[in-house]
Automatic annotation (TrEMBL), chain A:
Residues of the ABC transmembrane type-1 domain: 74-282
Official protein name in the record: Sn-glycerol 3-phosphate transport system permease protein
Subcellular localization: Cell membrane
Transmembrane segments: 12-33, 78-99, 111-131, 156-178, 205-223, 264-286
Similarity section: Belongs to the binding-protein-dependent transport system permease family.
TrEMBL record, chain B:
Family recorded in the similarity comment: Belongs to the ABC transporter superfamily.
Name of this protein: Sn-glycerol 3-phosphate transport system ATP-binding protein
Annotated segments matching region Disordered: 347-368
Superkingdom field: Bacteria
Keyword check for Glycosyltransferase: no
GO molecular function: ATP binding
Classification via PANTHER family: MALTODEXTRIN IMPORT ATP-BINDING PROTEIN MSMX (PTHR43875), TREHALOSE IMPORT ATP-BINDING PROTEIN SUGC (PTHR43875:SF15)
Keywords noted in UniProt: ATP-binding, Cell membrane, Membrane, Nucleotide-binding, Translocase, Transport
Species assigned in the record: Pseudochelatococcus lubricantis
PROSITE patterns given in the database record: ABC_TRANSPORTER_1, ABC_TRANSPORTER_2
ABC transporter domain mapped to chain residues: 7-237
Coiled coil: none
Stored Gene3D superfamilies: 2.40.50.100, Nucleic acid-binding proteins, P-loop containing nucleotide triphosphate hydrolases
Amino acid sequence: MTHMVKQERRRAALYGWMLLSPALVLFTTFVFAPTVATLWQSLFSAGTRRRPPAFVGLDNYADLIADPVFWRVVGNNLLYTGIAVPASIALALGMALWANARIPARAFVRVAYFTPAMLPMIAAANLWLFFYTPGFGPLAALGLGSVNWLGQPETALWAVTVVAVWKEAGFFMVFYLAALQTIPPDLREAAQIEGAGRWTYTRRVVLPLLMPTTLFVLVNALINSVRLIDQLFILTKGGPDNASKLILYWMWELAFSYFDAPRAAAMTVLVLMVLCLVAVVQFTLIDRRAHYR
Amino acid sequence: MNASTFLNIQGLSRRFSARSGVGEVSLAVGRGQFVVLLGPSGCGKSTTLRLIAGLETPDAGSIEIDGRDVTALPPSDRSLSMVFQSYALFPHLDVAENIVFGLKVRGVARAERRRRLDEALAVTGLEGLEDRKPAKLSGGQRQRVALARAIVAGHPLCLMDEPLSNLDAQLRHSVRQDIRALQKRLGMTVIYVTHDQTEAMSMADVVVLMRDGRIEQVASPADIYERPATTFAAGFIGSPPMAMLPADLLGAADLPGAGAAADLVFGIRGEDISLRRPGEGRLAARVLGQEFLGAETFVNLEVAGAARLTARVPGRVDTGQGEHVSLDWPREATHWFERASGRRFALPSSPIDPPRGSPAVVRPAKGY
Ligand SMILES: Nc1ncnc2c1ncn2[C@@H]1O[C@H](COP(=O)(O)OP(=O)(O)OP(=O)(O)O)[C@@H](O)[C@H]1O
Ligand SMILES: [Mg+2]
């Protein structure tokens, strides 16, 4: 009897592992192994033909922290994240509320808002390169023609940020639209009868009900603000004078322009740690705040 | 118009298409009455209720509440409350916040809010559940929260759209009585939508029977049962439904004096029928089968011309299938209708059929 139970249990465990194994193999090959390799590499010096890589402990990290460019890039990215994330979320929410209302040509409005999200970032950046061209693009038509948006340190980072917001907002809007459509119309009518106007209804009912979506979008926006920097390659290449350089772009430079693999690895490990921390914090928040349904 | 008319609807129409929506609805409701809108699915009950609430805009007609024309006012200015079929509770707010939502929005002071909340909680028996979210309540408790939210503001008019349809049969029965008692105690005027005739008959002061977007009959439950104004009303209310039979099945002696047999149909309530031996009653029939229900038995019968009807006989009867019987009933229990229009055929000098006013308008009667 107990023998059969044991055998049954072993069979179940075997099935479990079999079902798990494809994902496990893929993750190990393409995620866990490279992560460990990167961590390992970040602890060694760069090898040359004569000198093989030597274990240097945390020297690569110390080097990074001592580099003023590191602080510049981190500062840039913080500013970029601090502006792009709230701005794109607010814009997405606004557009979703608008596109969800009873307006003429609703489908058209939705598609129009979503278009930037469908464009590849490179294409979007090229579009904006045209917008920003001094004395030529549509901005020039607005009387701002003389400003070299991408060419001066004061405006370059902002110009890059605007492109990110424009690109991301449409994508996040789709999540908000989906969430808005799950709110039963009865709630609006009940609120209406209770005397709530449109604004009160939005603030007291809609926004709280969108909270889980907001947290989800926030996680994605934060990760994207580190991950999605393709526009730099087209628009500024991080310049002028590192004014618009972001972490990932710098990492790419360290690895493939300066061929300083150990420092790039150290930087990667740092970013990975920060992102993990962000994800952990957010998911505990989501678990705590979003379970009222 | 009566002095105590509280809600007065005149020629109200809202057409979604040629065949749907409501048209030309006129109704006067007295203060403190419990009015039930009854009718089959899709007949326009909810639409009528939503028009009164202001959630739909009428194409034509007017609505007056307490002597004030509210046709053009938004829902919040009509001083009414509503209980939705889905309850429409705010899922992110707890019970207390749900109940006082409207008070808060209207800027009622905190102390006053607290007092009214406690009152509403006590009346609906929700004490101790203030801090629960709707997701953690049973269906019956949610229903009571919706009810509490509707009464907390003290609006004189309360609209309810099938508020009991999500409850199980037993709970429905007790909540029905609770709602009725609460309505009487608070003196609210209630417009209540249902498609369940038992609910309508047991709760209503006045039943408004609707069909295809129009009002078919407005009457007290007793009236609508005893004197259905149309064949539709006769067939819709009562269980088993009253069957319509052609008048020429009856002998000349049983026909009403004035009408020609070809123009009339008649119906008899199941409980008025008694079974006799062949030849002893008014109408020959054949037994098709029977359903024993304990206190009574439904006997399914077939009469000449393949018309069917059901008799409701107290206790148990032992008639075999296919047996021939004769049906008898008191003469005054025959309901006559005009074949073409479906209207009740008024017997010229019948004591039980006094002349009646416009069928769509009911004066609040004494004693309700
Ligand atoms: N917003 C709308 N747009 C188009 N048609 C509608 C709309 N609302 C209701 N209708 C139609 O109007 C008619 C009446 O609908 P209503 O909801 O009032 O029926 P009801 O009597 O409440 O039925 P039920 O008992 O099933 O709830 C139906 O034929 C319905 O299809
Ligand atoms: Mg309905």
